[in-house]
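# step 3/5: fold
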Amino acid sequence: MDVAGTLVTYVCVWWIVWYMALPWRLKMPETLETGHATSAPQKTFLGIKFIVTSLIAAVLTALAAYALDAGWLGTWETL
């Protein structure tokens, strides 16, 4: 897999994993403040989710690149 293909694969996988990770570990407030929505989380842990998403996307992209280069998923000419 060339650099451009790897980068595009990484970005696509990253966004998919990011949207899957957003609902994880949300901390809801025990008491609601005036003017806040009832569904608004108190703490979102976005930094942790960003790091975990980046690591998962890197592993999945590496697996996809290895599978394509090894010929397990066909060749680039057939895609």
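# step 4/5: annotate
The mean pLDDT is 87.
# step 5/5: archive (pending)
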